[in-house]
Design goal:
Helices cover about 40% and strands about 15% of the residues. It is built from 16 helices and 13 strands.
């Protein structure tokens, strides 16, 4: 597959400032053996920025799978492999930037652009990270991979494991993921275990099992998942001809994605590809907002939420693993963290739908958050904002139908108002009656 390109020395480094212990890139580590901190991949110097921009652009004309991938096209920015024959690609990435005037107006902006990760092969941004995580699994000779998931990670891992000939083991919170996502895992042949516990509890369980059974973990504390998700920012910048937006807005759950965006943007700046950083705004659902609470307090440790709740089940997480990285990245970018209600998410989602775009509930938290942040004067009307829609509209069609027909209920039984509801109309098989209705 494709030709190997120049590889800068890669290693794993502890993210904890007080430790920074270094390990070989081929060690299986999710946390630092010395201090327990999160791990990240680090590399030597890369090429000149103008050379890189030219390479990235020219690869779009190539038909090799590696260059057609909207992730591996940017591989000089995450050169952790020494042999690209380990790559499993479903041509992930290549997701569009879409202008959305109706959503811009709703959000209090003159212009708003969506980077729509729902255009990925399994319908979410997880594919950007999974192609890298699975490549590392293949390189290490792993036979079995596992994850706990609110649905999208499992759909993605199941697909990439199947494509790469690995056995996939999936752990899901029973009853709390969308049917569409669960169905994907089944279709891609993953062994699927529904556990009577929430995401945070199952993650603790899976860590124990992975260690005991020698299974490779592909949750977002896997540093190679983060490396792949950086490409969302490289592709966005490439599509903007390397003009930096003022803000990048994204939903926050386990906080892997914001960690990846922050790292990617910093590294793009270090490489001279851009000369400043966009501000990162993370939006959480009100009932699952431990990172928002930490941000409000300004310092200290994250206090996990024991029973997180939200209809945006993708971000129903009370104890986000990557919070230290996320905190560093949001601070370093001069960004912010906001929380939004169930009603705000549902209405924002319908407005995104009216742009002809559509997304899943967690993704719509971005527009709900933007609306709040412009009202508070944090984001200005004239600023350039890119909101990342993390998942496809069809991931959770049950939610959509319930909203538009006035049947959607928030956790605790509070009814969501169908502010922008669009009910289907039942009509008799009678042209006169239908014509009367449509006149
Ligand atoms: N949006 C969607 C659609 C997601 O599926 C997720 C996470 C997020 C946002 C939040 O991203 O965790 O990096 O902060 N879904 C994970 C999963 C947890 O298991 O699929 P994050």
């Amino acid at each position: 597959m494709g030709s190997a390109t120049q590889t800068a020395a890669a290693e794993l480094v502890c993210f904890n400032d007080g430790c920074r212990a270094r390990y070989a890139i081929t060690e299986v580590l999710y946390n630092c053996p010395k201090c327990g901190g999160l791990m990240e991949a680090a590399y030597g110097a890369t090429q000149q920025p103008e050379t890189l921009k030219k390479i990235f652009r020219e690869r779009r004309l190539n038909n090799t799978p590696l260059d057609q991938s909207g992730v591996w096209r940017y591989r000089e920015m995450f050169p952790f492999l020494d042999d690209y024959s380990n790559v499993v690609t479903l041509r992930e990435g290549n997701t569009p930037l879409l202008d959305a005037p109706i959503a811009a107006k709703y959000g209090g902006l003159l212009n708003l652009t969506f980077k729509h990760q729902g255009f990925n092969p399994t319908g979410s941004f997880k594919d950007n990270g999974m192609t890298c995580g699975v490549a590392q699994a293949v390189r290490l000779g792993m036979k079995r991979v596992a994850c706990v998931s609110t649905g999208n990670t499992s759909a993605s891992m199941a697909a990439y494991a199947a494509a790469g000939g690995l056995e996939a083991l999936i752990f899901l919170p029973h009853g709390n993921i969308s049917f569409g996502k669960l169905s994907q895992a089944l279709e891609y042949g993953a062994k699927t275990l529904q556990v009577e516990a929430n995401f945070d509890q199952i993650l603790a369980l899976v860590r124990v099992l992975a260690e005991r059974l020698g299974i490779y973990l592909l949750n977002s504390m896997n540093p190679f998942r983060i490396e792949g998700q950086k490409s969302i920012m490289f592709e966005m910048l490439d599509q903007l001809d390397w003009r930096v937006p003022d803000w990048v807005v994204l939903p926050g759950g386990n906080l892997g994605n914001v960690s990846a965006f922050g790292k990617g943007l910093r590294e793009a700046k270090d490489a001279g590809l851009i000369d400043r950083l966009p501000k990162l705004a993370v939006i959480q659902a009100e009932g699952s907002a431990p990172f928002y609470e930490l941000w409000q307090r300004g310092s200290g440790e994250l206090c996990p939420i024991k029973d997180p709740e939200t209809l945006a089940t993708a971000i129903r997480i009370g104890d986000p693993v990557s919070w230290p990285k996320a905190q560093h990245e949001v601070r370093n970018s001069g960004g912010t963290v906001e929380k939004v209600t169930e009603q705000e998410i549902a209405d924002a989602k319908a407005q995104i739908g009216l742009c002809g775009i559509g997304c899943e509930p967690a993704s719509a938290a971005t527009l709900a958050g933007i609306r709040k942040l412009t009202a508070r004067g944090v984001i200005h009307r004239v600023e350039n904002v890119v909101a990342v829609l993390t998942g496809n509209v069809l991931k959770d069609s049950d939610y959509i139908y319930r909203y538009h027909t006035g049947q959607l209920e928030a956790p605790g039984g509070v009814k969501i108002q169908p502010t922008f509801g669009n009910k289907p109309i039942v009509v008799p098989n009678d042209p006169d009656k239908i014509a009367e209705l449509l006149n």
